[in-house]
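Sequence in, structure out.
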Amino acid sequence: MSIAPPFDDAVCEIDLDPGPKQGLHLQLSERHLPLALLLPGFVVLVVVIGFPMLYSLYLSLTNFNLVSPGNVNFIGLQNYINLLTKDPLFWKSFGRTILFIALATNIEFLLGLGIAQLMARLTRGKGLARTLMMMPMMFAPILVGFQFKWFFNAQVGLVNNILYTLTGSSQFIPWLVDKPSGFITILIAEIWMSTPFMVIILEAGILSLPIEPFEAAEVDGASGWQKFRHLMLPMLTPFIYTALAIRSLDIARAYDVVSIMTGGGPGNRTELIWTYVNRLAFSSKQFGLGSAMSYFTVLVSFVFTYMFFRNVIRSRWAGEDDTCVE
């Protein structure tokens, strides 16, 4: 009877080294895998966004008119020159849009910060409170426009009926027609619809703050205002800039609410930039001029967005430096 030779470990060793060629192949595959996964989304972006933007850029350099689409001539920057030098209504609508953005974002920020602090301190019913807070965001802007158009209707509106009940005066106020009140009604609708977004971002920032600095400040005898001013606000800066940047872009392209409530009128009193673009491009059929106005507005929005996010990055770097110092 034969006896098997003892098991030799050296004979059964397996070389797991893939070799230089196979290792290089694996490294290239891992390097190109993210690009391969991102490629379909990039192609969709190019087709859905890139091509229309390039085509509209081309149209902004022509005299394209919907009345005579076959008669298109390349005119270079003439549309942009006409907007900047020969169209006072463009500058009025542009300035009114900047004012609208400034008022809406600041009021939404102040309201959102106050409500976010109250929400963060809730001990019971947080889920229900957050759900109720998000309800205005669930409505489409068109529905919000119809809702507030009825609220401020001169004859059957809710606001005038409440004023009549409280004061007994039968003189109804034409909220949507007067010059200052028309702008204010649109502003109220925008604030009501979008303040919950600011609350969500700021509450998330408040709940993510470390509690140790606040406890140390309380031990040192700091007041509530001092803790808010010197601790909470600086640490919330990235969240604040992010929320302001997103809301500024949303408000800059506001169209639905304005179009439904006033249509930019009467007499262009509530005309914002995108309602003017729509009227110029489709109602007046001057599509090339409307495309030029759109690109000018997009360029201004890009500059504002760049400034906001640069401040976000700076605030984050400043926070990291403070942490390192501590």
